[in-house]
Write a structure and sequence with these properties.
This protein is α+β, with helices and mostly antiparallel strands and 318 residues long. The protein has seven helices and 18 strands. Strands 7-2-1-11-18-17 form a six-stranded mixed β-sheet, covered by helices on one side. The N and C termini lie close together (9 Å).
Amino acid sequence: MQVHVAIIGAGIAGLAAARVLTQAGVACTLFDKSRGVGGRMSTRRVDDLQFDHGAQYFSAKGERFASLARAWTDAGVVSEWFEGAFVGTPGMTAPARALAAGLEIVTACEVRALRRTREGWTLFTAQGAVEHPANGTFSAVLLALPAPQIEPILASAALGFEALSSVRYAPCWALMLACETRIDLPWTHLRAEGADVPWIARNATKPARGGARETFVVHAGADWSRRFLEKTPEEAAALLLPAFRSMTGVNGEPVYVAAHRWRFALVEANAGAPFLWNDDARIGACGDWCIGARVESAFDSGEAMGRACLAETGARHV
């Protein structure tokens, strides 16, 4: 029987798992609810403005990921912003797009449920079965999503992973601001650990961003974000703008203001395992929530999940 693996989530973890499988000759298809790849390594573009409103940068501490970061740098996909802090160029999604090259990815497809028969796994959206030639015969399913989004999908198939209950996330409100012209400031980013606003980045100072306007990304702290989690984006922006002005001294009226809520922004407690796998059901789960709160953690988890899936499923049929 030909193996075909479905991967739900086209962030770094899902893409890393897919690369392992496809390089071994196993067919796989990624499904993602967004219009593009990268997950929280996101860039929002509005006319001539751009904001890295999710992950601000990534580090590379392990040799495997460090070698990949070097290859990305040589290819112009990644540049160092400040010491030890790498960013995608021209946007944070660039490394994800590099991983996605040659993969089959179905975007704007939110998988909400699964069903298994003798023939294999079937994926469902809110509208019904996913339209894909392999749907109904997927040999295995890998869930590369935030842990709270994995649990209801597993439950639809009467499955679960006990380790998911220990995972905890911090939310984050992100504020995006643009000023009419560039501003002479002596910093590229500000940190204020424990403050309501612990992070402010001058997005336009990142390599390959440029532009005539000054752009900022402001990340609210976990406690602040929890307190105002259910505010509208407009309300959150109005609350964060005074804090930004107080910290930076930039008081002019911005030409663009928007806020984005990340419900599952930063892993506070992980699952303590590089991935989760149910051999009987041929279903697995991976992501930064498995082992840490970094982009590299998501990549390491995805690669480990891909290797395990290959060993337990693909090797039997390839």
